[in-house]
Design brief:
single chain, mainly beta, Immunoglobulin-like, 3 domains, about 10% helix
Length: about 475
């Protein structure tokens, strides 16, 4: 008996659905092969100040090649600062003068970009501050911004995506007097915990591969790493816990939540504390965005567990290991941030992000390292209007837009006032397809600065520009 054409269509569709589901199931289950026991969360060490008595803090970073066992029995070739993978946490205070010496022991050129810092262009660590193999780069600058969670990573032209993917990234945490007086959880690694989340793919030999997740290859395994480990655990006390969360992925957007639908209090965004805590159950983070969250474990019993989830998949198990009296706080108010003046007419620049095939562009132009795209002046406040007009399937989700060397405020999204959790200082903002976001931007130092999509493969395929900031007359 012959099948009717319509019946045959549904059978073929069902078979294809089963095949696709099988591929995704195998890749999800493979994530835990050889991981019957969890490892404890790695806390990046605090980098030593080599001149504690001097006026300038002195820090030494060395880029290294290394190996790591992410998957049981398989050694992965990696890159790291002062170690095999990731880098130490640099702890500074607002107004500190710091000097950093970087030794490049890689067999390729690199840079060190201070993502989120307000610093001169010559210290920014973009593609113009190249450190050649066996070379040394020394830079000095002062911290002129308030308490915040920032980070550092390479930013060479055509090498950023690969080097970040292989492990070159670390945190730089700024503290100040206001933050210290708020009685927030602040004991680094104990109740103030760095959470660096990265999506990574490995081939059958356990080596990194940077293929798009949508390709559904059975020849790779996909994982979400937290501080360089697959689904680790962290032990905490029955107290308030501060999580400094960064999406350090090359391209993956993340929705972060806790199991049991536990609420979290967001106290900070990229550039520092908000005016007041914002209670949330799910937090969206695009690549390079950061948040500081406080979770209240007070009253929980020893042995209780909570999962930190990304896309509803557990990536970190939080275990209450002991019961204590908690004297930290979640204050009703945090810092004062000046309201944005919408009455004063400001100069405006427009930027349209788009793509054609594998080529990405801003205002129709792909990046050229010898071309200056915009010119501005120090301490001039401007409106930057960023729109995404993308018709390509692989990039239609939107783009995280980052500006070097400054912190900005979000004025509006599609002419609407941003949500409370986006009303603080930021350096990276996610802009969805067919959306327009206005930013309040000001540079404090002269120099050449990048602005770009922080999906690193998009940046390397042209979605980046340069602004020259000149001294005012």
């Amino acid at each position: 008996m012959k099948l009717k054409q319509s019946n045959l269509f549904w059978i073929v569709l069902f078979v294809m659905g089963v095949a696709i589901f099988s591929v995704f199931s195998m890749r999800f289950l493979s994530s835990y092969k050889g991981r019957s026991t969890q490892t404890e969360l790695y806390i990046p060490p605090i980098l030593e100040d080599l001149n504690p008595e001097a006026e300038n803090n002195l820090y030494l970073l060395t880029t290294n090649e290394g190996t790591m066992e992410f998957i049981s029995g398989k050694m992965t070739k990696t890159l790291g600062f002062n170690g095999a993978y990731l880098g130490p946490t640099i702890m500074v205070n607002s107004k500190d003068k710091i000097k950093v010496k970087v030794n490049n022991l890689l067999d390729e050129a690199t840079t060190v970009h201070w993502h989120g810092l307000i610093i001169p262009g010559e210290s920014d660590g973009g593609p113009h501050q190249v450190i050649h193999p066996n070379g040394v780069w020394e830079t000095e600058f002062q911290i002129i911004q308030p308490a915040a969670t920032t980070w550092y990573h390479p930013h060479g032209w055509q090498s950023t995506a690969s080097q970040v993917y292989r492990g070159l990234a670390g945190l730089l945490i700024i503290d100040d007097e206001i933050s210290r007086n708020l009685n927030l959880p602040s004991d680094y690694g104990i109740n103030d915990i760095p959470i660096i989340i990265q999506d990574r793919s490995f081939n059958r030999e356990g080596q990194f591969i940077r293929s798009r997740r949508m390709m559904m290859s059975r020849k790779q395994e996909d994982f979400l790493l937290v501080n360089g480990s697959i689904h680790p655990f962290v032990q905490v006390s029955s107290s308030k816990i501060r999580l400094r969360v960064i999406n350090a992925s090359n391209e993956m957007n993340m929705r972060i939540s806790l199991s049991q639908k536990l609420p979290v209090f967001q106290i900070a965004s990229d550039g520092g504390l908000l005016t007041m805590p914002v209670q949330r159950t799910t937090v969206f983070l695009a690549p390079a965005e950061r948040v500081e969250l406080v979770v209240d474990f007070s009253g929980r019993k020893k042995g209780e567990k909570v999962e930190l989830n990304v896309q509803n998949q557990g990536v970190l198990t939080v275990i209450v290991s002991n019961e204590v009296e908690d004297d930290t706080e979640i204050p009703d108010s945090l810092v004062t941030i000046k309201e944005i003046d919408l009455e004063t007419k400001l100069p405006k620049r427009e930027f349209i992000l788009g793509s054609m095939g594998a080529n990405f562009h801003i205002n129709g132009k792909s990046f050229e390292i010898d071309r200056i795209d915009e010119i501005g002046t120090v301490n001039t406040t401007e409106i930057w209007e960023i729109s995404v007009k993308d018709h390509m399937m692989m990039s239609s989700q939107g783009h995280p837009f980052h500006i070097h060397g400054t912190q900005f405020r979000i004025v509006s999204r599609n002419n609407q006032i941003p949500e409370a959790y986006e009303q603080g200082w930021k350096d990276t903002v996610f802009i969805r397809n067919n959306e327009t976001v206005q930013l309040l931007v000001q540079f404090h130092y002269p120099g050449v600065y990048m602005y770009h999509c922080h999906i690193l493969e998009h940046e390397e395929n042209g979605m980046m520009g340069q602004v020259l900031i000149e001294e005012s007359d």
